[in-house]
Specification:
alpha+beta, 415 residues, single chain, six-stranded antiparallel β-barrel, elongated, OB fold (Dihydrolipoamide Acetyltransferase, E2P), conserved putative lor/sdh protein from methanococcus maripaludis s2 fold, 32% helix
Length: 415
């Protein structure tokens, strides 16, 4: 019984020896050839060109290629920002008094000139009447001062006549020197009287101006009793409560204007030259709402801490659906460029860590192109840096390098 396994082992060993060690002799025996015939050297054998090309083709790596053509791209500047009310004012009191009006609640719409807070008049009306009385008194003194001035002018004229007559008579020896000196003194006194009368008239005019200023000040104090809305908008806070004491600077209410509204962002200095005032812009709010407007302001001065420039987009908000302070993604239109839209998976890195894609050239050899990412969308990425038409490897690009021959299989862009 032990003889059969031993024979089997000998047969298997002999078969393995013939298949491995004497393989050439065994194949020659099977083909009926002489195993002693020497094998021709490579110098004596001419290679078949068809077999050589087939062997080269078999050594190429198969890849999937997408033929891409460049297209015009509206290269927008993407920013992160927030909405901001067009105007916001804290309306404050300018005088001291007690509030006598019922408060308006926050959220109420107000128009320009609507009453927000009314203050108690106190003694301001009495002060106004007193100022008006002083003004009337000052004005009543004007005719008296003017009459005094006319009287002084008349006396001067009379004195001048008497002096001229005395001088002529004195030349003929008919009037004494004493008489001549008296007429001259009277003329000088008349001149002084005119100066005094003019001063009195000016004092009266100054009194009128002072009284007018007092009336204006009293009227201003009365006007400050009614605190009104400076523009159309919404109340962001309740107005001052009935009976509360207001001091100069006390808050009456906060009014904001939301129509129109601004979307404010900050653009880096590398992108600021691509934005122009008047450019169209689009913003997507955090809630998903899309709004459109145009750039109305671009700062000329950079923020010293961030080195960014403020940009404002004005957006219509007639229904007041946009609130102040909402986060927004802003896209501002900029001059377009030619770019390729490719699957995001086609991007790869070379040995130097550069971002790019691998392309098959006309010789079906791999070439690496560094690219610049322009925009990332849900269905692909927009890149620049490729020729107008390029056969981009979209499957297998990570298994080949520059100069490797490949066998491309083309794929439709919709696949």
């Amino acid at each position: 019984m032990r003889l059969i396994p031993l024979l089997t082992a000998i047969v298997v060993a002999a078969s393995l020896y013939m298949l491995v060690i004497e393989r050439d002799a065994l194949m020659a025996f099977a083909l009926g050839e002489n195993p002693e015939t020497p094998i021709a050297s490579t110098e004596d054998v001419v290679a078949d060109p068809v077999e050589s090309s087939t062997e080269v083709a078999e050594n190429r790596i198969g890849v999937v290629v997408l033929r891409s053509e460049s297209r015009a791209l509206d290269s927008a500047v993407i920013l992160r920002g927030q909405t901001q009310a067009a105007r916001q004012v804290e309306v404050r009191a300018e005088t001291s008094a007690t509030v006598i009006s019922e408060p308006l609640r926050k959220g109420a719409q107000v128009k320009t000139g609507d009453l927000l807070c009314q203050l108690a008049p106190g003694t301001r009306q009495a002060a106004m009447l007193e100022a008006q009385a002083r003004l009337s008194e000052a004005r009543s003194r004007v005719p008296e001062a003017e009459a005094r001035l006319e009287e002084a002018r008349a006396r001067l004229k009379e004195a001048q006549i008497n002096n001229n007559a005395s001088r002529k008579l004195s030349e003929g020896g008919y009037v004494s020197d004493t008489r001549l000196a008296a007429t001259q003194a009277a003329e000088r006194a008349a001149i002084a009287g005119i100066a005094s009368a003019e001063t009195g008239l000016q004092t009266t005019s100054a009194g009128i101006e002072s009284a007018v200023a007092a009336v204006a000040a009293a009227q201003t104090e009365i006007d400050r009793l009614n605190i009104t809305a400076p523009f159309d908008g919404l109340l962001e806070s309740d107005t001052a409560e009935l009976g509360s004491l207001m001091q100069p600077g006390s808050l009456c209410a906060t009014v904001i204007q939301l129509d129109t509204i601004k979307v404010v962002g900050f653009v880096p200095e590398t992108e600021v030259n691509r934005i122009q005032v008047g450019a169209l812009a689009r913003a997507e709010l955090a809630a998903g709402q899309l709004v459109q407007g145009e750039v109305t302001f671009l700062s000329r001065s950079a923020d010293p801490s961030t080195r960014t420039f403020e940009v404002q987009v004005t957006v219509s908000n007639a229904n007041l659906s946009i609130r102040d302070g909402q986060t927004a993604d802003i896209a501002i239109s900029a001059p377009g460029d030619r770019a390729h839209k490719l699957p995001q998976s086609s991007l790869t890195l070379n040995n130097e860590g550069q971002l790019g894609v691998r392309v098959v050239n006309h010789n079906q050899v791999v070439v690496f192109y560094p690219v610049k990412l322009l925009r990332d969308e849900a269905d692909g990425v927009w890149i620049s840096g490729l020729p107008e038409v390029a056969d981009v490897i979209v499957v297998g690009q990570d298994f080949v390098v520059d100069g490797v021959p490949v066998t491309p299989t083309y794929r439709e862009a919709s696949q």
